[in-house]
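Field reference: "sequence" (input) and "structure" (output). Example, Arginine ABC transporter permease:
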Amino acid sequence: MNLDWSQIVPYIPFMLEGIWVTLQFVIVSIIFGFIVGTVLALFKISSIKPLRFFADAYTSMFRGTPLILQLMIIYLAVPQLTGYDISPFLSAILAFGLNSSAYVSEIIRAGISAVDKGQTEAAVALGVPYRQMMIDIILPQALKNILPALMNEFITLTKESAIVSTIGYLDLMRRGQVVGANLYRNFEPLLFVGLIYWGLVMVLSLIGKWVEGRLSVGD
């Protein structure tokens, strides 16, 4: 095996810049996905059938098709249909955010369902408005239970973020490919990028365990 790590040394700063570029759109996507996912979760437990149908159909569509297909449709089809030349960054945020919201909606719905129904009944008996009950009573308890699952979703998005390299976005993965193409050596830069991804996932996993431990102490 002929490995020459010295050749990638000048490119290391270029590849390390990909960490923030990757996390930048992943963080925005998870925030976007959390907001949309919360709305969808509330739709799913709503007594209004059209809202429940829309939320269920949305979840089924985004969970039932590949993320890379959703990314390609947004990046390639939006300009064709609207004439708007959408950027790779915005395409990545929309694809990952919309996809994540489908999973987050199920996580939040499960968290809401796990809250003791007696609390809902007590709030209704006291005449607490539905919106206030959700914001002040139900959602805070649900979020406490689902934070580990949301952290896992964040970790999954970080790993899957590598597919944005297919639309030319200069994330961590794409930078490794660029270096490989410049050097005509792909193993070293891709292995280096792989180690960075592994390090990111390990750090996020430790943060997730810490959060879970703090919540357990709080209980």
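The two ends are 53 Å apart (CA to CA).
The mean pLDDT is 87.
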